[in-house]
Each structure stands twice: as structure tokens, then as C-alpha cells.
Design a protein that fits this description.
Layout: H1 10-20, H2 25-49, H3 59-89, H4 107-130, H5 132-140, H6 145-165, H7 169-176, H8 180-193, H9 195-214, H10 220-239
């Protein structure tokens, strides 16, 4: 699939997102709440087999729990994304909560893509957490402190880039029938066309979400649907040549 040239005004898209969530906040909030509840229950159960407590934390067990959760949780998350995408294409279509459970046929590919993205974007942070003494020793010895800081900064910059660049991977698998790596690469190439602007819109949406948390969760009533509608109902449809 070829990526067409596209552009957008960050502020206009941000404002349009607020206007588009009028009347559709409830299904997105309920869908995300269902996702959170299922995630908590599932990861609590998995945590019994792979324990990690504040007194005895295990980074490895934490990662195992996250990865084993993918087949059950990722299709639900994609279901919320697809709610936004379908609403962007036809705003008159009713949003039904049950639709978030409609994508388990793609669980294998979605889980593989999630695992690949997780390994690529989280490998460096996890290595730092697992082997902090080795990192410090490397800085004191082979590279030197300043060089090590520069290397870590560059590596983390790559991680940040890929974290944003892969943001459309999961819906591409469902919507376009792509394989895991194919969807990851298409998302990365598409986002790279306007990486700066997409980074800004993600930053603005993250600030709104953070404000929602600080407001004792009340602001999340707006922040959750705003994120999905803006990123997937509007930008995804714009980028991948679907009418929004």
C-alpha cells in the first residue's frame, strides 16, 4: 500500500477532535473501562504464577505477565480503535460496546505485532533496569560518562521515535489485513511523513489525559474518547486514504 502525501494543522485537528466527541463519549469510556477491568483481572491471575511484589520485585515476571496478556487484551484495544475509525467513516453508525470483542480472529497477528513492538521499544529501558551496575561500569570504563550519556540519549530518542511511529500498526492489521511486520513498517513510513506534527498531537492528547488523571479521573471522560477519535477516527482515516 502506497502512502499518499498528507498534511494537517495540529490545532485545528485538536479542536475538531473535541467537537467530534460530543454525543459519543459514553461508549468510548465504557469500552476503555471494560478493557481496564479485564486487564486488571487477567494480570492479577497471571501474577499468581509469575509474582512480582513491592517487597520482592521481578522485572522479568512483570514482562512475562504483560506478554501473556496480549492475546486476550490487544484485540479489545483494537476494537476501541476500530470504533473510532468506523465512526470517522460514518458518524451515523451506532457505536456498540460488544464490537470491541469482534477482533479475536486477529489475536495471533495482533499479539505478534505487539510483541515485536514491545521488544523493539522496551529492550533498552528493560536492559537498564535489569543491569544498572553493568551500565554504570561501562560508563566508568570503556566509554566514559559523557559518551555513555550521549549513547543512551540517542538510543532513547530512537525508542521514542518508534513508539510514536508504530501507533497505527494494530488497526492496520485488522483494517487492511496486513501481517505484523508489514503493518509496523507501513505505520512507521506513514507517521514519518509528518512525524513532528503527529508527535505534537500525541503530546497534546497526553497532556489532556494527564490533566484528566489529576482531576480525580473526571477529565478522562473527555480525554479517552478524544484520544481515540483524534488519532484513529480522524488522523488514521486521513493518512490511509479513507473518508473521515
Amino acid at each position: 500500500m502506497q502512502i499518499s502525501e498528507y498534511d494537517f494543522d495540529v490545532i485545528k485537528v485538536f479542536k475538531a477532535g473535541f467537537s467530534r466527541i460530543n454525543g459519543i463519549k459514553q461508549p468510548f469510556v465504557l469500552a476503555f473501562l471494560a478493557y481496564i477491568i479485564i486487564a486488571i483481572l487477567l494480570q492479577t491471575i497471571l501474577g499468581l504464577f509469575f509474582p512480582s511484589t513491592p517487597e520482592n520485585p521481578s522485572v522479568i515476571n512483570q514482562q512475562i505477565v504483560v506478554i501473556l496478556s496480549y492475546p486476550a487484551l490487544v484485540p479489545i484495544l483494537v476494537g476501541i480503535m476500530m470504533m473510532a475509525i468506523e465512526n470517522g467513516r460514518d458518524s451515523n453508525k451506532a457505536l456498540e460496546l460488544k464490537e470491541i470483542f469482534s477482533y479475536y480472529a486477529f489475536a495471533g497477528t495482533l499479539s505478534m505485532a505487539s510483541l515485536l513492538m514491545y521488544m523493539i521499544t522496551m529492550f533498552i529501558p528493560i536492559m537498564i533496569l535489569l543491569f544498572p551496575e553493568s551500565i554504570i561500569a561501562l560508563a566508568d570504563g570503556t566509554l566514559g560518562s559523557f559518551a555513555m550519556i550521549v549513547v543512551l540519549f540517542l538510543l532513547l530518542a530512537v525508542v521514542m521515535y518508534l513508539s510514536i511511529a508504530y501507533i497505527f500498526t494494530l488497526p492496520l492489521i485488522v483494517d487492511k489485513g496486513l501481517g505484523a511486520w508489514e503493518a509496523m513498517e507501513l505505520s512507521r513510513k506513514a507517521v514519518s511523513v509528518r512525524f513532528g506534527k503527529i508527535t505534537w498531537i500525541v503530546t497534546l492528547l497526553s497532556i489532556v489525559a494527564f490533566g484528566g488523571v489529576l482531576s480525580f479521573g473526571i477529565g478522562l471522560i473527555w480525554a479517552i474518547p478524544l484520544f481515540f477519535v483524534t488519532m484513529y477516527g480522524m488522523l488514521y482515516n486521513n493518512i490511509f486514504e479513507e473518508e473521515a
